[in-house]
Amino acid sequence: MPSPSAALPPSPPAAGHHTTGKDSRRALVSSFLGSTVEYYDFLLYAAAAGLVFPKLFFSADMDPTLGTILSFVILLAGYISRPIGGVLFGHFGDKYGRKNMLFITLMMMGLVSVAIGLMPTYAAIGVAAPLLLVFLRVVQGLAVGGEWAGATLMAAEHVKEKNRGFAASIAVTGGPTGSVLATLILGLFAGLPEDDFLSWGWRIPFLLSAALVIIGLYLRYRVTESPDFVEARAAGTVHTGVPILRVLKKYPLSSLYGILAAAGPLFMQALLAVFMVPYVVGTGAVDRQTALMMLTASSFVHIFAIPFFAWLSDKFGRRPVMLAGAGISVALVFPMFAMFNSGSFWLIALAFMVGNPIIQASMYGPIGAFLAEKFDTQDRYTGVSLTFQLGSVLGAGTAPLLATWLIDLDNGRGTDNIAWYFIALIAVGAASVILSKETRGRSAREQTARDDADLASVG
């Protein structure tokens, strides 16, 4: 019996091949730098959440541990709002184009970051301080929710299909690049005396984002619209219906598999960026500035590791590279935590290197293309936003809170609890990669046909 995909008419040739080399390069640079600025702002909050905000935006009479937990709750609020932003900007991005949405998300992010840098503390305005912080964090989440998919698609849709894994990863590397800038600049000011750092030093990195945003906005103004979207619009397949409803109806299994595949590596990303720095500082093994510099160094290597694994996925397929990454993650997570707990400067530095450029990047590198190739052009912005951002909530958003709870369980295992939870996420993610089959070189129409067949067999 012929497969369901065989009954479909042949898929149209991949769009984007007619774009010029100059357009492609401009799109890649714009996506990379714009994403860098977005994640600089977003991760700057994450880096400050465990070091600064518990001391400034909550009552001095509050238990320090509770203040840290509340900071992580506000951090989670930003992750929860990301899927909402993804659906919102995805809706308009799929109906009216990628370019304008990316301009708006970058503008929002910059304004929020500057506002955080100017915020009065709890001592000045009382409970209004943490409430204002929640509001700004939610707006941040909305902006990032629309940013990741848009930047990834603008890069991927401007190149030939055979290079889409690498191209998508260029936008994805904006995450670690933003992390490098955030932790480097915050780390430089963290060397100030404690009173100076808490009174004004931590604010400067947030205010500096204004200059980065201006550069990013200029580059995004000059980039051309996605060739895939232009072609789909000319064919009359956009401006109809509600993209989120089509995604839920046409790609239910693809979306579920994408969410679960992204959760594990995103958990590790947030764990290292938010939880492990105050953790190793709390052990007394290294000081605050040194820990931030260790994270910065690992994030710098991470910038090159992500495209490397994405390039491998262009050569060998998304599925084998991500499954190999899952195996690497399981094998190295316990040694990584053993190094974090060693008390040795060099072993802690090596632990960050193992966690970011190896464990996290090995499964995360191909994720941009892996998700983008699951959806048709007119549904892609919404589909990629929804799957990635829900995976981000499940993985990254809950990481600091879960890690705080797991490490405090009274069973004598400490970080082992976190390692086992991470392994469970990776196992579920690996199963999802296996079930979603291969996406490299395969159209979203074929993926949809397989989803329909799988749903029919379940029914």
From TrEMBL:
CDD domains: MFS_ShiA_like (cd17369). PANTHER family: SHIKIMATE TRANSPORTER. The chain crosses the membrane at residues 42-60, 66-89, 101-125, 131-154, 166-190, 202-219, 256-279, 291-312, 321-340, 346-372, 384-406, 418-435. It is found in: Cell membrane. Keywords: Cell membrane, Membrane, Transmembrane, Transmembrane helix, Transport. Residues 1-13 have a biased composition (Pro residues). This is MHS family MFS transporter. One of its GO terms (molecular function) is transmembrane transporter activity. InterPro entries: MFS, MFS_dom, MFS_trans_sf. It comes from the Bacteria. It is a multi-pass membrane protein. PROSITE patterns: MFS. One of its GO terms (cellular component) is plasma membrane. Residues 27-441 form the Major facilitator superfamily (MFS) profile domain. Residues 1-22 are annotated as: Disordered. SUPFAM superfamilies: MFS general substrate transporter (SSF103473).
